[in-house]
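Q: What residues go here?
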């Protein structure tokens, strides 16, 4: 499956200097991890953000966000953000930071 390389590079540039950063192919796209926990990723042209179950409903109220659903079932705690929601640098940074906050709240793997 193809994923948006430009979005992946922009996301990588926001995360790559953080301690514990890594990346791996996942879900047919690219996943970005901190301390072994996924914080965000790219699948096709969508940004995937792991916001966690506590922030899931609030994240869904944000424009251009929807539940992550690529198997026919929603994955609670993960949202897809379409291109209108991440096209501006400030918007992308906000979403990535949401994923960072959740990933850093989890135990290291």
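A:
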């Amino acid at each position: 499956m193809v994923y948006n390389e430009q979005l992946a590079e922009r996301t990588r540039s926001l995360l790559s200097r953080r301690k514990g950063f890594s990346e791996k192919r996942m879900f047919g796209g690219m996943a970005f991890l901190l301390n072994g926990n996924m914080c965000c990723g790219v699948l096709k042209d969508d940004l995937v953000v792991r916001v966690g179950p506590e922030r899931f409903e609030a994240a869904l109220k944000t424009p251009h966000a929807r539940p992550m659903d690529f198997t026919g079932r929603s994955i609670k705690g993960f949202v897809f953000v379409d291109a209108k929601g991440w096209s501006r640098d400030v918007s992308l940074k906000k979403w990535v930071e949401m994923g960072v906050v959740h990933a850093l709240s989890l135990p290291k793997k």
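A: Context that may help when evaluating the design: Residues 5-105 form a domain with the Aspartate Aminotransferase, domain 1 fold (CATH 3.90.1150.30). The two ends are 27 Å apart (CA to CA).
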